[in-house]
């Protein structure tokens, strides 16, 4: 994300404010892909379970600081049906406002886990 922000902030002309860019990883992932990536990084089985929309805030608050839990809740709701990002589809977009990162999910999770210990 930092590379995307720097790239767009350093453009010679930003046509409007706010200038919105869709930031995506190099691939799309299913919940099972995320589960497998965590299992690979932590070296043990990881449970995949459904958290209802109404319970997201409480779920994230169980292991994240409040301000981070609030941000994760807002971000997650944005991608659920009816959310502002629910129909975002960078796969088929040729827009200059879509940024595709290069860091794969497993690598990002590994960096997060190594940085937390």
Automatic annotation (TrEMBL):
<protein>
    <recommendedName>
        <fullName>NmrA-like domain-containing protein</fullName>
    </recommendedName>
</protein>
